[in-house]
Amino acid sequence: MEENVIKDSNKIVIKIGSSTITSEDGVVNKEFIDNLAIQVKELIDQGKQVVIVSSGARIAGVSTLGRWSRKEDVNYKQALCAIGQVELMDSYRIIFGKYGTHVAQILLTREDFNSDNRTLNIRNTLFTLLDEKVIPIVNENDTVCVEEIKIGDNDMLAAQTTVLWNADLLLILSDIDGIYDKSPVEHKDAKLIELVEDVHELENKISIGKSSSFGTGGIHTKLEAAKLVTKYGIKMMVANGKKENIIEKLANGEERGTVFKP
Ligand code: ADP
């Protein structure tokens, strides 16, 4: 039987990019969160465990406050994240709650992963929440760290969380079907790469265009994330979170993305 990364994985980290959680008009896409909640519930009912890493605090901050959207000053961006994080978690809490699922907020910085004491604490909290079937929702703590605002878009934070939890799969949901040989926005003939066995080799083969309007990390940080998780023997997949029931469709082979093999 052909292997299927979703079906074959029990511990799954799902990373939601800014472009995925945002509607065209720049507000948090509640329908997306609703569809995600249904699919995560299904995974839990199948006996799997799920950790979510979600971007979108800044966009939620802009739409809540109705100003500062054009401020480039990093302090304003941090302030927007502080405002929007509440809004974002509120959406997750209300929508996941409709399906009887509790969520918990975990705010981390990349430095937290360098400390044994902190990683132990993070691990203990994660395990306790998951044992109780509560879904941890991780985001960067932008008050103390500005990496995500500047470049990361949580791809690396998701990869570090995946390694720390020793998950089976990091599923990155973006606004694109996967990694292409060139930017699909700029080139109509771009081809989707379905399987990557060597990230370094892929890096030399493809050309990377600009990231989408709400995204920040683009493809570079996704490849860096793939390097980290595959080094630890963990699979990664990039797929299109804009498509309805994407996780279910990936599981039954109706949709495809890019799989990175360890
Ligand atoms: P996210 O917010 O999900 O992290 P980004 O917007 O930062 O996503 O990155 C995804 C975007 O990168 C895609 O929408 C696409 O426009 C762009 N892109 C550029 N080059 C490529 C490529 N070679 N393959 C796939 N996407 C690419």
Largest sheet: 8 strands, mixed
Q: How far is the N terminus from the C terminus?
A: 20 Å
Oligomer: single chain
Strand order of the largest sheet: 3-4-2-1-5-7-8-6
Mean pLDDT score, rounded? Answer: 92
**Strand content bin:** 15-25%
Small-molecule components bound:
adenosine-5'-diphosphate
Radius of gyration, whole Å = 17 Å
CATH homologous superfamily designation: Acetylglutamate kinase-like
Number of helices: 10
Note the run of SSEs as H and E. Answer: EHHEHHEHEHHEEHHEHE
Q: Could you say what the CATH architecture is?
A: 3-Layer(aba) Sandwich
Provide a descriptive summary of the structure in words:
The chain is of the alpha/beta class. The protein has a single domain, classed as Acetylglutamate kinase-like (Carbamate kinase, 3-Layer(aba) Sandwich). 44% of the residues lie in helices and 16% in strands. The chain contains ten helices and eight strands. It has helices spanning 18-21, 30-45, 57-65, 74-98, 116-131, 147-152, 155-165, 199-205, 218-231, 246-251; strands at 11-16, 49-54, 103-108, 135-140, 169-174, 195-196, 235-240, 258-260. The chain has an eight-stranded mixed β-sheet with strand order 3-4-2-1-5-7-8-6, sandwiched between helices. Helix 2 crosses helix 4, helix 3 (57-65) crosses helix 4 and helix 7 (155-165) packs parallel to helix 9 (218-231). It is globular. Bound molecules: adenosine-5'-diphosphate. Residues 17-20, 153, 174-176, 179-180, 182-185, 206, 208-209, 211-212, 215-219 line the site of adenosine-5'-diphosphate.
Q: Can you lay out the helices and strands and say which pair or pack?
A:
Blueprint (H helix, E strand, L loop, with lengths): L10 E6 L1 H4 L8 H16 L3 E6 L2 H9 L8 H25 L4 E6 L7 H16 L3 E6 L6 H6 L2 H11 L3 E6 L20 E2 L2 H7 L12 H14 L3 E6 L5 H6 L6 E3 L2
Parallel strand pairs: 1-2, 1-5, 2-4, 3-4, 5-7, 6-8
Antiparallel strand pairs: 7-8
Bound molecules: adenosine-5'-diphosphate.
